[in-house]
Design a protein that fits this description.
3-stranded mixed sheet
Length: 287
């Protein structure tokens, strides 16, 4: 029996065209015509899916530093309006929008608005400068040069007696909290613990922390209470008046230090006695 001859027409028939089967009897050969389905026999939907998959797999274009510099300039007016120290700074929008709060402020600007300015009346100029330096370089001066050391600042003494060096990083920390930049908070907090200071410097730092952070901010408050809880019996004699005034002005500070001391004594004692609680030294019960 002869095999049927299959012919594929050069042009694609209409979608609803039936398959034309021509039975030739003259030469005994069956001719079956099958319409073309597309180039290479690949379904168009499948081809579209493959193109879409290839598009999705492409990584997003890398944002270069030049791209940041091409973005619009935003002005930052730092300081109170009645202060002679009020200063106008400028930075690129693409970097500033890393801060959620600044991004929200920038989104309120019209396209043709000029100047594009954000007022920061309550912020410290040096802290804002450190913040901008961090945006452009991922660090700020003085930089960390090892696990326990900061690079030398020739304009400051090696021992911080005034607390200025501690306050520098503390102000960056509180600014980073306001701007929603946890990485900058972590960086500034790590630098605080690399500053060598005196008791007076530590008191100035503790005063700022308790005046400018909520009680829930244990990340920066707990080390302050721990520091004084461990050393207050020695350091308070070096700055007794300042320590006393600190406890009076910020009762939470005195309470936190007291809790640290009592917790440490309880741990040394091994917790409560087996009788279910600490025993009193009184010879007779209270009436």
């Amino acid at each position: 029996m002869t095999e049927p001859e299959v012919r594929i027409p050069p042009s694609e028939p209409e979608a609803d065209a039936p398959i034309d089967v021509d039975m030739e009897t003259g030469d005994g050969v069956e001719v079956i015509e099958i319409p073309e389905t597309g180039a290479g026999g690949v379904d168009e939907d499948e081809a579209a899916e493959e193109v879409s998959a290839e598009t999705e797999e492409k990584p997003p274009p890398r944002v270069t530093f030049v791209d940041y510099l091409k973005s619009p300039i935003i002005e930052l007016l730092v300081g109170a309006s009645d202060s002679p120290a009020q200063t106008l700074l400028a930075a690129h929008q693409a970097l500033l929008i890393q801060s959620p709060s600044l991004q929200e402020a920038i989104s309120q600007f019209g396209e043709d608005q000029s100047p594009r300015r954000i007022d920061l009346p309550d912020e410290d100029l040096d802290a804002v400068g450190c913040f901008l330096e961090y945006l452009y370089t991922d660090e700020y001066f003085p930089r960390k040069i090892s696990d326990n050391t900061l690079e030398h600042d020739p304009s400051t003494p090696s021992i911080d007696d005034s607390g200025d060096q501690l306050l520098k990083h503390a102000k960056v920390y509180t600014l980073a909290e306001k701007l929603g930049l946890p990485a900058l908070k972590t960086l500034s907090h790590s630098k605080i613990h690399r500053v060598a200071s005196t008791a007076r410097g530590e008191i100035a730092y503790a005063r700022y922390v308790y005046a400018n952070t909520p009680r829930s901010e244990t990340t920066i408050r707990r080390p302050v209470a721990s520091f004084w809880g461990q050393r207050s019996h020695v350091l308070r004699h070096q700055a007794e008046d300042e320590f006393k005034q600190m406890c009076l002005d910020f009762p939470e500070f005195g309470f936190d230090v007291l809790c640290f001391v009592l917790d440490a004594k309880e741990k040394m004692r091994g917790g409560d006695d087996a009788g279910g609680g600490p025993r009193s030294g009184r010879k007779r019960p209270r009436v």
